[in-house]
Amino acid sequence: MLPEFKVAQLRHFVWVAELKGFHLAAEKAHRTQPAISLSIRDLESKLGEALFEKRNSRTAKTELTPFGRAFLPRAKELLSHHDRIAEDMALLAEHKTGHLRLASVPSIASRFLPGLLLDFIGDSELHVSVFDDNSRAVLKMVENQQVDFGIASLFDDQDQSEKRYIPVWEDKLGVVCLKEHPLAVSQELHWRELKPYRLIRNGTSSLLKGSAAESLLAHSQYYISNMISLVAMLEAGFGITTLPWYAFPEGNTRLTFIPLHAPVITRQVGIIQLNNKSLTPPAQALVDFILASRQG
Fold first, then answer.
1. How far apart (Å, rounded) are the C-alpha atoms in residues 106 and 265?
2. CA-angle at 272, arms to 176 and 245, nearest 5°
3. Residue 230 and residue 235: Cα distance in Å, rounded?
């Protein structure tokens, strides 16, 4: 049966060998000299060979046996491997290293995540991968365990028993169009006022389902999923669209956002994760950080 080494015993052995004395090793270990001697004897018993030459006097330096000299580099290698793993796990537990993967709807990915991640990561060596897509795609990535967690909306009442959903952000739906568009003079809009104009559907248009404005979707022959392409079409004057406030392109000087007052449609965006899977320490730390930031 192979011997099972204790890390403390290996460390004591290395210190005695390097410092050439039990007394100095005991001081370094903050232990008594008899305790270090006992530790070494137990290690020698496991190995079946002596590690140190017998000493003739208390003042003589401790010397390794040939077996001890052969064992010393291996003991150091074991300790180095142990310490490296221990350090890696400590850093992982403190979310300072590792690889964090999350998926988010573009509105939150562009408006909130940059600042949140900058504050969260700091000077750590944590690797982060962010995938932005519509809510259904984010849900699918969570289900397939392609990401640690997702940030998205739940549009329907389908069974979400396998997932945990924590609402975090809330915004209202409005109409986006050119500042020169006839609708742009309004402070707020009724859905019927949109009927004469070309409506471009997008990934958030599902919010209209079940509302008084749902009929607008049936009369829209255009759908654009990518936000960059959608903004380009709007800026070209191709039509109008509906978007939640957080999805409105911040800083855009050519488009305007007009709230819908009839119907008032509110979107919730939150954190989605699998119920039966624990998050990695960095992922859990980021979830806690996001929730604390929103509450603050």
1. 19
2. 15
3. 9
This prediction's pTM: 0.69
Q: Give the separation between CA 67 and CA 74, rounded to whole angstroms.
A: 11
pLDDT for the residue numbered 269:
95
- Total count of domains within the chain: 2
| 3-state SS class at 56 | coil
User: Under DSSP, is residue 256 helix (H, G, I), strand (E, B) or coil?
Assistant: strand
Place of tokens 């192979």: 2
Q: In this structure, what token pair is assigned to residue 83?
A: 């310490």
Nearest 10 degrees: Cα torsion 242, 244, 154, 232:
60
Within a domain: residue 217? yes
Query: Are 218 and 109 within one domain?
Result: yes
User: Three-state DSSP class for 45?
Assistant: helix
> Residues with Cβ < 8 Å from 112, sequence gap 6 or more?
169, 246
User: Which residues of the chain have a pLDDT value below 70?
Assistant: 56-60, 95-96, 155-161, 296
CB atoms closer than 10 angstroms to residue 229:
12
Dihedral (Cα; 167, 169, 174, 179), 10-degree rounding: -160
In a domain, 192, yes or no: yes
- 122 with 195, same domain: the answer is yes
Q: Read out DSSP for 63-116? A: -B-HHHHHHHHHHHHHHHHHHHHHHHHHHHHTTSSSEEEEEE-HHHHHHTHHHH
Residues 226, 249: Cα–Cα separation, whole Å: 13
- Domain residues for the domain of 259 are 102-269
- The predicted-structure confidence for 30-73, as pLDDT tens digits, reads as follows 999 999 999 999 999 999 999 999 875 555 678 999 999 999 99
- Rounded to 10°, the helix 66-93/281-295 angle is 30
